[in-house]
Amino acid sequence: MTTAIFYTSQCNHAKGVAKKISKAFDEIRIFDIAVTGSEYINDFKHIIFGVSTSNHGEMQKDWQKIWSDFKSIDFKGKTVAIFSLGDQVNYPDEFADAMKYVYDDLLKSGANIIGFTSTDSYNFNSSKAVIDDKFVGLVIDEVNQPHLTDKRIQDWADKIKEDLQHESS
Length: 169
Ligand SMILES: Cc1cc2nc3c(=O)[nH]c(=O)nc-3n(C[C@H](O)[C@H](O)[C@H](O)COP(=O)(O)O)c2cc1C
Prior knowledge:
Blueprint: E1 3-7, H1 13-22, E2 28-32, H2 33-36, E3 46-50, E4 53-54, E5 58-59, H3 61-71, E6 79-85, H4 98-108, E7 112-114, E8 117-118, E9 130-131, E10 134-135, E11 138-140, H5 146-168
Parallel strand pairs: 1-2, 1-3, 3-6, 6-7, 6-11
Antiparallel strand pairs: 4-5, 8-10, 9-10
Helix pairs in contact: 1-5
Flavin mononucleotide (FMN) binds next to helix 1 and strand 4.
Family: Belongs to the flavodoxin family.
Domain Flavodoxin-like: 3-161
GO molecular function: electron transfer activity; FMN binding
C-alpha cells in the first residue's frame, strides 16, 4: 500500500527530512501542503505528516492555512505518524509544540497514531508534544543536532514501515 507524506517547510529542513524518510519506503508519494493544500489527504490510508513549529509554539503558517479543512477530514481507519522540526536551544519552552495540535486532532478524529519516540537525546524545558515521557512523533532539530538527524530518521522510518506493513497484513 502506498504511504503518503504531507509536509510544509519554510527553510527546507522539513523538506529534506521528508525526502530522507521517503527513502525507507518502496511505494511513497510526497506532497508539499503549501502547493496542494489538504487535497489528496483523504486518498491515503497510511500517512506521515510533517509539521514544523514556528512563531513560539505555533504550526508553520502553511499548516495554519489548511487547518479548518484538515479538521474536517475523517481519519477513522487511517494509520498516521507525525514528524516535527524544532529548535530546542532557541525555543526550549515551546520545543516542537506544533506536533501536539496535529496529534490532538488526529486522535479526536479516530486515527491510529504510530511513531512515538524517546525524549532522551534532547535537552529542553517544555514541549506540548510530550505525553507520558515520549514525543508523539519524530522530532528533528537541524539547527542544533544535525549530526543525529540521519540515524533518528532511519530508526524511525524503519519502525514506521514495519508497523504499517503489520497494519496491512
Ligand atoms: C520565527 C521562528 C519561530 C520558531 N519558533 C519555534 C518554536 O516555537 N519551537 C520550536 O521548537 N522551534 C521553533 N522554530 C525553529 C524551527 O522549527 C526550525 O528552524 C525548523 O528547522 C524549521 O524547518 P522548516 O522551515 O523546514 O519547517 C522557530 C523558527 C523561526 C524562524
